[in-house]
Amino acid sequence: MxxxxxxxxxxxxxxxxxxxxxxLVGMYVKKNRGFKRPLFxxxxxxxxxLFTVIPCLLVAYFSFTDPAGNFTLDNxxxxxxxxxxxxxAIDPKELESYLAMGLSLEDLGLARxxxxxxxxxxxxxxxxxxxxxxxxxxxxxxxxxxxxxxxxGPTLVILFIVPMWMNFLLRTIAMMSLLExxxxxxxxxxxxxxxxxxxxxxxxxxxxxxxxxxxPFMVFPIYNVLNKMDYKLSEAAMDLGxxxxxxxxxxxxxxxxxxVVSGITMVFMPAVTxxxxxxxxxxxxxxxxxxxxxxxxxxxSLNEWNVGSALSLIMMILILAxxxxxxxxxxxxxxxxxx
Length: 339
Known about the structure:
Elements: H1 8-32, H2 42-63, H3 74-80, H4 84-89, H5 92-100, H6 115-146, H7 153-161, H8 168-179, H9 184-191, H10 203-228, H11 231-239, H12 244-255, H13 257-273, H14 276-282, H15 289-298, H16 302-329
Helix pairs in contact: 2-16, 3-16, 6-10, 6-13, 8-14, 10-13, 10-14, 11-12, 13-16, 15-16
């Protein structure tokens, strides 16, 4: 691996950008005769432009270009057929000669391969299962924590928050330690007489790791909505003859929909793009769409980088669609808070 060094002109560009930013700030202060509230948002706007807008534009640019910078749609055709570039690279006359010899595209390894689409569908299915499990586990937990009669509610909130202070990678490695053949869970199972089980390097381990890491993102939006809910509405419903179940079904559940939708979005989006969990807990046997994108960018072929950008753009479109769903179901952003 070669050491990367910033060229001299790179420092000049960064210095010029910083000077331009400071100049604009000075002009704004002089024009408004002091600091105004919008000025304090300027560092965030600069950060958003440098590390969000510009990278997204670069991804879009590389998605529609080849390594030479020419416009092309081949990257998206490669998404539909992962062997498209391989067929395009072979000489047509050579391909005709192989076909004339009785060899098929399958024999040459050039037949249409839908691994990209299959991986995307599989990732969506895994993310759906993760979201469904998190909802089934998270809603009761959030409801219990938001119950004012439950004295340990604030304590449970802290217990959910504390693991999030730990690095995402460290939490996943800790899960590996629990699930490995000589891990704590297998030791307990052996003491109980059940025997050691294969808990790591399989699909179930990946799903468990996803639920473990993303469950708080389902719990907190729902808890936020339930905690802000006016409990006089529930009391009024019970005074009018509703039992606890009908009060929950008619009052609590409809009012918690913004939190549920927010939680679904906050879990589904990272779940469908995750890649490190499948690598550590799946042992390389489970490939998600995030793993596929990572492999494209780690490839030594420059053309694969453009294909990886196209795959990333497709994933970004799916994420934007999820955000659009969130805006329709929760236009005021009532369920987007953490606590």
